[in-house]
Write a structure and sequence with these properties.
The structure is a single chain. 32% of the residues lie in helices and 0% in strands. By secondary structure, the chain is mainly alpha-helical. The mean pLDDT is 79.
Length: 53
């Protein structure tokens, strides 16, 4: 996972897109409130995956 994260982060940096793989780590430590990181605070459902052809 770390290598994928680093690769994506490097590839997308010039486009202003940040990549993070902390969620599995945080969930394992009991952190489940990601409201401060949400695009729309209060949203409990994750955004759907977007695939562009």
């Amino acid at each position: 996972m770390s290598e994928c994260t680093l690769g994506h982060a490097g590839e997308l940096r010039s486009h202003g897109i940040a990549i993070s793989s902390l969620w599995p780590v945080l969930a394992a430590r009991g952190v489940s409130d990601a409201d401060r990181c949400a695009v729309e605070p209060g949203t409990r459902e994750p955004s759907p995956d977007l695939f562009v052809d």
